[in-house]
Design a protein that fits this description.
The protein has 16 helices and 27 strands. The strands form six sheets. Strands 2-1-5-4-3 form a five-stranded antiparallel sheet, sandwiched between helices. The protein has a five-stranded antiparallel sheet with strand order 7-6-12-11-10, with helices on both faces.
Amino acid sequence: MDSTPPSSSSSPFDLVSSALGRYIPRGQAAASGPAEPPADAAGHPSEHDLPAAGRQEQILGAVNLDRELRVTHRNLEAPVFAGLDAVTGSPFVNLLPQGDVPTVTRRLRQVLETGEAHVARVQRLRRADGSELVVSMSILPAAAPQEGLTVSLIAMARRLHLYAAETAIGTSLDIGETAQSLAESLLAWGDVAAIDLDFAVWTGEGVTERAQGRIRLRRAALVPDRAWPEGYVTLGDDLPGEASRLLAQATRRADTPQSIVIPDRAAIELVLGSPRLVRALVPSDRSAGVACVPLVLEGDPPVVLGVAEVWRRADRPFADSELLDLEELVARTSHHVDLARQHQREHTQVLALQRRLLPRSGGGTIQTASVYQPTTPDSAGVGGDWVNSFPLPDGRTALVVGDVVGHGLGAAATMGQLSMEARALLSAGLAPDEVLEHLDETVTLLDDAETGLAAGYSALGSTCCIAVYDPVSHRVALSSAGHLPPILVSPDGRAGPLAVHPHPGLGAEFALREPFGVHTFVAPPGSLLALYTDGLVEDPAVPIDEGIGRLADAVAAVHPWDTLQQAARRVVSEVMPARQRDDVTLLLARMIGYRKGDTATWRLPARDDAAVRARALVSALLRQWRTRDGTRDSVLLLVSELVTNAVRHAGGPITVRLIRDGPGLLCEVGDTGNGRPRLGRADLLDDGGRGLHVVHRLTTRWGVRWTETGKVVWAEVVR
C-alpha cells in the first residue's frame, strides 16, 4: 500500500483492508501461488489460469478518497488490479472510461452529501495500457471523525462479465450500436476486436444459406478507436472479396460453423497468402494472433451472420478456457444482432413507405410544403402519421393528412393502405365525404378478429382530413373524420381554425357513426391552408385550444414571399411542444389558382341547340387563344359529343368549362344527371353508344366526378 491508514475500528477502509489482509497476507501473495501467474489478453493475470485455491484471493481491493474525490490511500495488491494507476493525490475519475465520468462522479458526490452507501455498481476501470477491468464497485461514506469515501472493488469473474456484456449488448436495436457493444465486450480478451457482418445483415435483408463465393462482409465495429495502418479495413469498409471468402470458409469447416485460432503472424501470412490481405486484416505490424468466432443464428441449417475477430500479441496465446468464453459471449449475443437486423429491415420498409407518401407537386395552381417528424428516429416511432398532396386528373388538387393509431410496421401498413385508397378514390372523382365513408369501412374491416386484433394491432379511432381545391372557382371542399380543424389564413392576414363539424373518427361503433359532412369555403389566391396532426399542438401543460391558437398565429406570420418549405419548418419549431409525445405532421398549401384569362365558363339550357351554341362559344375562345386548327377541331367535336350526351341523358342546366393548362386543354361539361357514362363495346350496326368512343379517341384521358347537383364529365386534349 502507498500509506498506512489511521487506526480506527470503525473506518470502512480499515474494515475492507482487514478483510484483504485475511485473504492476501502481506508479502505472501506471490509465495502462495505460482512465481508469476499467466497473463490475460492485456498482460494481466487471468483468473482462468490461476490455481483453483487461489482464485478467490484475486478479487478484492479498496481505495480511500477525500472530499475532492482524490485518492488518499489504496489497497490494490491483488494481481488482478495490476495496471490501475490509483496514485495518491490523483483524481479517482482518472480510472474511469471517459463516458462514465459524469455518472460515477454524481454518485460519489451523492454519497458524500447524504451519507447513504451506494452498493454493487457494475463498473469498468481503465488500466494504464488502455485495457479495462470489470469490477463490482461499492461507495461507502467514511466514518466520523474522518471525511471522504471508501470505494471497495471486487474484480468480477468471467461469468459475471459475460452476464454484464450480454445485458449491455441487448439495449439497442441499432445494428451498428449492437455490433459496437459486442466488440467492446470482446476487448476484455484481447488488444483489438472487430465485428464483420454479412452485407445482407448490415442492410437488414433476409439472411439465407448462399454460395460461399457470393459472401460479402462489411466491418460493422472496431475497437479501440485509434489511428490504423494504411490499407487496414476500418469501420464501414467492405472486406476484400478474397478475405470474405477465406473467413467464411475458415469458420465453416465440415459445413458446421466453428471458431478458429491463428496463433502468430507467420501462420496468418501463410493462410492469407497475399500482402494486400495481410494489410487489410492485421491491425499492426508486430506479431499477433487472432481468434475468429462466427456469429451463428441457430436453425436447421444454422446461418452465419458474420465473424467476430479478437487480436492479441502472439506471446500470449489464447487458452482453451478463453476461447470457450469468447464463443459463449458471441453465442449469447448473436440473436441480438439478428434482432437489430430485423429492426433495420422494418425501419427501411417503413421509411420507404413514408417516402412514397410524401407530397407530390400540385402543379402551377398551388404550392405545398410538409414537415414530418416522428417521435423517435427508429421504426418504433415512424408509422402513424401521413401527409399527401397530389393533382387530380381534372385539374383540382387533393390535400390529405391522416393519423393512424399506434406506431411501427402495423401502423405504417394501415397508413399506406388508407393513403393509397384515398388517392385512388379521389382520382376516381369521389367527393371527400364519400372517400371518408370508404376509409371508415376499411378501418372496420381491418380490425376484424381474423386480420386485425389477431395480429395485435387495431386502427380504430384513426383520423383523417381531406381537402380538394378547385383552382378555377377557388373553392375548397373539406371533410374531416375526427381530425383537428385546419387553419385558414386569408390574403389580408386573418387566420383561424375552420368551423368543421366534429366526428368520432374512422372505425367508430355503428351506433356512434355519423354522416361525414362537407365544409365548402372560398380560398382566394394568396390564401394559406394548414393541415396538421394533433402531435403538433397537443401539450399536457396547455389547453388544446391554446395550442391551435399558437399554430394559427405562427401560420399567419408566414409572408407571401417566404419559401414555403422553410416556413413550414419554422412553424413546427415554434409551435411543437417542448417535450414531443407524438409524431408531428404539418402540411402548408398556398393557393394560386388559374389566371383569369386561362379559363372560361358558360351555362346553357338543356335544349336541342345547346351543342351548336357551345361549339360557337368554344370556337371563338380557341381563336382568341390561337389554338392550332387540328386541336381546335378536336375540341369542338369533343364539346359537341359531351353536350349532346348531357342533353339526351341528363337534363337541367348544362355547364361548359374550358381551361388552358400548360400543354393541355381541359374541357368539362356538367349536368344534373346521376348516371355514370361507361365506355362499352359498340357493334357496327348500332345507332347509338358511339359518343364516348369518340371522346376516348380524341383525348389523352377523361373521367367523371360527382357534385352536389349532379356530375361533371371532363376530358383533356393536348394543344
